[in-house]
Design brief:
Its cofactor is Mg(2+). Its EC number is 2.7.7.65. This is diguanylate cyclase. There is one protein chain. Helix 1 (6-76) packs across helix 6, helix 10 packs across helix 11 (483-500) and helix 11 runs antiparallel to helix 12. The protein has four domains: 60-218, PAS domain (Beta-Lactamase); 222-323, Beta-Lactamase (2-Layer Sandwich), CATH 3.30.450.20; 373-421, no CATH class; 443-589, Alpha-Beta Plaits, CATH 3.30.70.270. The chain contains 13 helices and 21 strands. The strands form four sheets. Strands 1, 2, 3, 4, 5, 6, 7, 8 and 9 form a nine-stranded antiparallel beta sheet that branches. It has helices spanning 6-76, 84-95, 170-178, 221-229, 275-280, 321-369, 373-377, 387-433, 443-460, 474-481, 483-500, 524-540, 566-582, and strands at residues 101-108, 113-118, 127-131, 141-146, 150-154, 182-183, 187-188, 195-204, 210-219, 237-241, 247-250, 257-260, 263-266, 287-293, 296-306, 312-320, 464-471, 506-511, 514-520, 551-558, 588-589. The protein is 48% helix and 22% strand. The two termini are 75 Å apart.
Length: 590
């Protein structure tokens, strides 16, 4: 392998960095500025969206709030319908805090109608009430509000409608059809240069009979004016639109609907005179987009606004790329110059650092490569004014003084450590295979030793017997006397099994209150005798609580072990144990 000098290792990379720094920084700056500028533009958009979103919520939520209040109030006080003049006062006062609220109305099931009316283009003096029950012919007429008698003098010059029946109006019929609160479609207000939307809800009494319909309505001109009042960057746009693209409000000055042959037609984004908004209308899926219109790149973000009752509008914000890119590009030249100066300075500093630290490190290198402890001891002191190199030299000298002692004691320590690890491993091995409570093999230990016993029985052609036993009614012992007595019962059974089987027989706690025994080279009658002794021991020496324990046994005895596996033996003996427990317990099934 080719080697390099310390000087070259330090200086050459610095020089390369200084050489390539300009190109690297230029590329990184260009990419970074692009990413940052996009983020700046998106942040500007989201900040604007947040303001508009909050304003729309503040504008629309009172509609549902007032409708809910009036619906619930009339439903709980149907007697109010006997005095609609008083109700008109309620509607009038509800509208006072909301200058954009055009109508708050109540229509009864018998055709009476009252509302609070406000001119969306007027002032406070244009707020009054109207009804169709003061006139005997059900003429809908406007009246001044009187805080004492509620319905004041009739207002001359205001339009009136002969035989007005609110039950024929869309707001009434749609609410009754839906049997719940519902939005009207957005449409131009009659007589006003504005779009409007209303929300209505049917009112039922406790028996479910229809009492009437209450509604609220607003002129959307307030939203249009709000969007136009936002101080946007040049050539930027904000719009509110329905999901089909029909416009609700925009920051531009164009009208939102045209009147053709006596019919009002809504303006949609796709048909807008402004080419930027027209292009936005081609993408009405939530997300961020970029497109080019008339030589200008635009960042476009479309975001849904969720209104009560599942109504959803779209809010779109479009800003030109030139706004946020030019804002950051002016900093790129200065940043590039500063970074280049830094890289050149680093290259010069690297050369000085290589000279300052290289010489003492070379001395250390020569001493270490000499393979002589004496050479290390004779290094000049202080080796360097660099703290770390000085400390390294001192450490090498101290190491040389103690290295011989370390080497002499190393073999002894290794031997001691090896012995200790061997003992620890044996302890861990025993702990991992022994049941903590009974000191018998656990299931893991049983599997290890039983596999060996099965293999050995096959090899020597010896008999093999497996016994699986279970303490009868052990759950009752635990439930009635407690788990401490239950643990004593497990210990008693384990002690009896170990006492009456040979030392080389396998006795294990298989799980819970189950125990397993494996014997090899033992007659079956001898196995049965030992099991009987276990039973007698448990009867003659009950638990500390005088609990006499009995066991159910499943026994499988093989004169010769052929192709049997440990799993098949366990399945067979488990089935026999199950038979013993289901035929009376305290017995052996073999």
């Amino acid at each position: 392998m080719r080697q390099v000098s310390l000087w070259g290792l330090i200086v050459i990379p610095f020089a390369l960095l200084a050489t390539l720094g300009g190109v690297t920084v230029f590329v990184l700056s260009a990419v970074t500025i692009t990413n940052v500028s996009d983020n700046v533009g998106l942040h500007y958009i989201k900040e604007t969206e947040s303001r508009v979103h909050r304003r729309v919520k503040e504008f629309m939520i009172p509609l549902s709030t007032i409708v809910e209040i009036n619906r619930d109030a009339i439903a709980h006080h149907p007697e109010w319908l006997d005095d609609l003049d008083r109700v008109s006062s309620r509607l009038y006062e509800q509208a006072i805090p909301y200058p954009f609220m055009t109508f708050i109305s109540l229509a009864t099931a018998d055709g009476r109608y009252v509302n609070s009316t406000r001119d969306p283009f007027g002032g406070p003096e244009d707020h009054h009430i109207a009804n169709n029950y003061t006139s005997e012919s059900r003429r809908l007429e406007a009246y001044e509000y009187d805080p004492v008698v509620y319905v004041g003098p009739r207002m001359e010059g205001e339009p009136s409608y002969e035989g007005y029946d609110p039950r024929m109006r869309p707001f009434y019929r749609e609410a009754v059809r839906q049997q719940g609160m519902t939005w009207s479609s957005i449409s131009p207000y009659y007589g006003y240069n504005s779009l409007g939307i209303s929300l209505s809800a049917p009112i039922y009494d406790d028996q479910g009979s229809l009492l009437g319909v209450t509604a609220t309505s607003v002129a959307l001109i307030s939203l249009d004016k709000y969007l136009q009042s936002i101080d946007l960057v040049d050539n930027s746009y904000i719009f509110l639109a329905e999901k089909n693209g029909d416009l609700i409000a925009t920051s531009s000055q164009e009208t939102l609907y045209d009147k053709t042959d006596g019919y009002n037609e809504r303006m949609s984004l796709g048909e807008h005179l402004n080419p930027v908004l027209q292009r936005a209308g081609q993408q009405l899926t939530e997300g961020a987009y970029q497109f080019r219109v008339e030589g200008e790149n635009y960042l476009y973000h479309l975001h849904p606004i969720e209104l009560p009752l599942g109504e959803e509008w779209y809010m779109g914000v479009l800003i030109p790329e030139s706004y946020y890119r030019n804002m950051l590009m002016e900093y790129s030249a200065a940043i590039l110059f500063i970074i280049l100066v830094i890289f050149i300075s680093i290259a010069l500093a690297g050369s000085l650092i290589a000279r300052f630290i290289g010489q003492p490190i070379l001395q250390l290198n020569d001493a270490v490569n000499s393979n002589s402890l004496e050479r290390i001891r004779t290094l000049p002191q202080p080796l360097s004014r660099v703290r770390e190199i000085y400390s390294l030299g001192q450490g090498l000298q101290g190491m040389a003084d103690t290295l011989s002692d370390v080497m002499q004691n190393l073999e002894k320590k290794v031997a001691q450590r090896t012995s200790y690890l061997k003992d620890e491993n044996e302890v861990l091995q025993e702990q991992s295979s022994t049941d903590e409570l009974t000191a018998l093999y656990n299931r893991r230990g049983f599997k290890l030793v039983s596999e060996r016993a099965l293999t050995e029985a096959k090899r020597l052609d010896q008999s093999l017997c497996m016994v699986l036993c279970d303490i009868d009614h052990f759950k009752e012992v635990n439930d009635s006397l407690g788990h401490t007595v239950g643990d004593q019962a497990l210990i008693s059974v384990a002690r009896a099994l170990k006492q009456h089987f040979r030392g080389d027989d396998i006795v294990a706690r298989y799980g819970g209150e189950e125990f397993v025994v494996i014997t090899t080279n033992m007659q079956k009658r001898d196995v049965m005798t030992r099991l009987h002794r276990v039973r007698q021991t448990l009867i003659e020496h009950p638990n500390p609580q005088d609990v006499i324990l009995t066991l159910s046994y499943g026994v499988t005895y093989l004169d010769h072990v052929a192709d049997e596996t440990l799993d098949t033996l366990i399945d067979e003996v488990d089935a026999k144990l199950y038979q013993a427990k289901n035929t009376g317990r305290d017995k052996v099934v073999s």
